[in-house]
Amino acid sequence: MTGLILAIASLLFVLATWKRWLKTALRQAVPDRLVGFALSMTAGLGLAIAAFFSEPGVIGGSLAAVAAFMSLFWLLATAAGKQKTGAPKIVVGQPLPAYTALNEDGSSFDSQSLAGAPYLLKFFRGHW
Question: Which residues are within 8 A (CB) of 112 and not within 5 positions of it... i.e. 6 or more apart?
Fold first, then answer.
């Protein structure tokens, strides 16, 4: 019975951490240091491992396995996908770096053509 309780606690702990992580990620407010999330996932993994050693039965073992997979997946994906953060390349008020790009009609556009005129430069990061 103790193994089943540990397995349920592990799964609930990992699901709560995932929920908090997804809310943070969808708001695009992920902190630079992920120590809190990593400790939470590690604690959930530890509970799952403890459940395995406490003879959780089939249901408890399944719940512990799901919790262990979810926490390990998050830990490995986060470690492998570390995004670099640094100073922005373009800052409001500074001169625009020279570049050329294609317009929507396929013609070439040169940023030097904007010299001396006010303009709004908008970047779009797609989520597809």
Answer: 98
